[in-house]
Amino acid sequence: MKKTKTFLAAGTTMLAALALTACGGSNSSSGSKDVLNWEESAEIPTMDLSKATDSASFVQLINTMEGLYREKADGSQEPALATKETVSKDGKTYTFTLRKSKWNDGSPVTAKDFVYSWRRTVDPKTASQYAYLFSGIKNADDIQNGKKKPETLGIKAVGDYKLVVTLERRIPYFNNLMAFGSFFPQQEKAVKKYGSKYGTASKYMAYNGPFVMKGWNGSSLSWKLVKNDNYWDKKHVHLKQVNYSVQKTPSTAYNLYQSNKLDAVALDAEQSKQLKSVKGYTLYPRGTTFYIQFNQYKNKYLQNANIRKALSLAIDRPALCKVLGGNNTVAKTLTPAKLTTVNGSDYINMIDKNDEQYATYNKKLAQSYLKKGMKELGVSKLSFKLLSDDTDGAKKSTEAMQSSIADTLPQVSISTQNLPFKTRLARTDAGQFDMVVTAWGADFADPISFLDLFTSKNAQNGGHWSNSQYDKLILESKTTGSNDQRWKDLSQAEGVLLKDVGISPLYSSTSAWIIRPGIKHLINLRDHWDFKYVTIEN
């Protein structure tokens, strides 16, 4: 999802010293059976689901909003607002019957709220970076390209509680999408009432999920999720409140856990190594890949494939993972390992290994490609800025890459710039970078969640890499009626991306947490927390 989908605040940090005593209490830190104290590693950029792209935002959205389905811990879906689904024989028409439910102000959630939300997201005026996910729904592409009006989108309300969706082609992962935040309903009167303020603070929102948000002003480092008394399934929501705080330094977060001020803590590499035996220690697959995007739109030197290859080959990924430590593993592909199984084997095994060579440290080859590239460009020296987040681990990782490139390519000067996540994200979206370390977490367990990003016109393609063969293969993967051909198209497309170094994969990670053992029924969706069913035991 995720996500977003989604960008993530990069990295983890090493500690010089670590106290190893963990608190043994099994209840929540508040001593209550219905209040949690939780951490987030970054500020929330937005609560507007048409504009959200990042992990911090979507964690809040899946707890305060709800769509047709809700994702379960195993990646499948359970009914949420949909009580019945009917699919036509050709797989192109979905009819959903909706349950009666309410917004937090007590007004009904109806099929029209879905229609309004989807139209708003695909409308080019909204500038949603996730609008591409609607591709395959009738007229979605034409609407995004300004050829048709949002009102022609293949979704309509039949009365208040029946929703009909018409597709242009089968979408194998359609129900996965229906559990994703970009497809949730929005209350039209709230969007229009708050205008440009909508989604910029907790009070400028309407909620229909298990919780409502309180105390977030757009830049807050703390806020609350409070049980929504108008939620249709409130009998299964046992928590009254989740207190959130932003913790960018793992050592500080762990101290708060030890002093009973947090109920869970994300561990950095050194902590993970030393705290494996502590009760409550748990590993979660993130379905996430960290990678470098090269700005090929504004930087003429990075338009040169040989320069990109040289830079990628100059990064010592095993050494980088050693610096980061813990649960990070070298990534040679964009799609992370173990995300998707194809005919009993990991999808990434289908990718040509020769195409992965540029994500492997090779000093001699890096120097060779640099020499070729500089000759083509007519230069003898190059300098680039490497942008990343301001977490301790992100700073460590950019320093490690800066050092690796300097040692391998003396003719290249790399300066680092570490900014708060929200600022870094804005800079990335605006194309204000040379090279940026970013990450993507799967919105659902399918390679297309990653590969869609780098089609020529995708809003997430901040580096503006463009390849007609890649675009063609991605399009064909969406239109073929053969699953085998679809996997072939996707794996070949990923090979094209890697061979041309459209991006440079760095590492994939599993997150390590210590969570108080008394906290039960917590769902982790690729590092997105769902608190709906959580209970706290003594």
List keywords for this structure.
538 residues; globular; alpha+beta; 27% helix; 7-stranded mixed β-sheet; disordered N terminus; 4-stranded mixed β-sheet
Give the N-to-C terminal Cα separation.
32 Å
Question: How many whole angstroms does the radius of gyration measure?
Answer: 23 Å
What is the number of helical segments per DSSP (H or I, 4+ residues)? 15
In the predicted model, the low-confidence regions spanning at least 5 consecutive residues are 1-25
Strand content: 15-25%
Secondary structure tally: strands: 25
How would you characterize the largest beta sheet? 7 strands, mixed
Principal-axis shape equals: globular
The share of residues in helices is 25-40%
Please identify the structural class as seen in this structure.
alpha+beta
Summarize model confidence as the mean pLDDT.
Answer: 92
